[in-house]
Amino acid sequence: xxxxxxxxIGVMPLVPKPVVGFFSRRYIAGETVDAALEKSRRLTEGHCxxxxxxxxxxxxxxxxxxxxxxAYLELLTAIAKSGIDGNVSLKxxxxxxxxxxxxxxEQIRPVVARAHELGTFVxxxxxxxxxxxxxxxxxxxIRAEFTNCGVVLQACLRRTIDDxxxxxxxxxxxxxxxxxxxxxxxxxxxxRAIIRRNFLYILEILLRGGSYVGIATHDELLVSESMNCxxxxxxxxxxxxxxxxxxxxxxxxxxxxxxxxRMRVYVPFGREWHAYxxxxxxxxxxxxxxxxxxxxxxxxxxxRR
Length: 305
Ligand SMILES: Cc1cc2nc3c(=O)[nH]c(=O)nc-3n(C[C@H](O)[C@H](O)[C@H](O)COP(=O)(O)OP(=O)(O)OC[C@H]3O[C@@H](n4cnc5c(N)ncnc54)[C@H](O)[C@@H]3O)c2cc1C
Prior knowledge:
By secondary structure, the chain is of the alpha/beta class.
């Protein structure tokens, strides 16, 4: 962790909520479904698809998981009414994964079933490595019934090559990312160059196996190498998509879209934005420096503007 990262984490609790709100506006679409749909509409005008995420995975009681389910059911209806080219992403712990996998399945299944009725899709996000087995188990159970759902693999984890082989074997729809959580060295690569190479190796396993892959990265080298990979494999643009987070690497996003690739933007929203923002920074403090550099106009993406 750099000195700047440490300083930012240190002062975070002292920063007034409106100030955090001012800076997070770029990364979070607002508090309401309407705000998220409005932001999504503007993104779709820029030829991007979207995936909407309701913030608030830190739950303590089962009723909160039931409320999350209901919020997603309403969100799916609202997306369908809006006519926006969008689907949803959800965090399994917000649906009760920490209580037990059966309970989480019971909450996630109706969301996937409703999405199926509406002709849309549900992405089950991947959280820290203590949840990987249970998340994949929930995914496999729901996928046995519905094909309109997908899961996420993290290139930083040493286990991911085996998971990718298994998921490619069932032509699963997979989002591939580096992984945001800081994991112990025993189970995860820490070196940036190794994670990049692993990402590309896993991408090829998935694409060769016939999986539809959401290539989720803002890393210019990975975007470029992934473009080379889909070209080498002779894939049509309908066989994969790039994915980026709202407010991040917008210049790279634009050139990717202009090059004819499909792009989906992850649009988080909800009343829990403050808890979400601070928890994410605690989970991965180096993100604090990245965001600060971005806001101050010091990131590589901005320096070249
Ligand atoms: C659509 C999408 C969905 C994701 N879903 C998951 C998931 O389910 N589970 C999971 O563990 N991880 C998820 N991630 C996060 C991912 O694992 C990485 O932590 C994150 O994308 C940073 O890695 P990178 O490949 O963009 O490369 P990096 O080298 O980390 O980032 C490249 C550049 O992008 C910018 N940047 C990257 N991330 C951010 C950010 N959050 N805020 C501001 N600037 C940023 C910085 O300028 C940075 O220099 C997701 C990422 C995306 C894009």
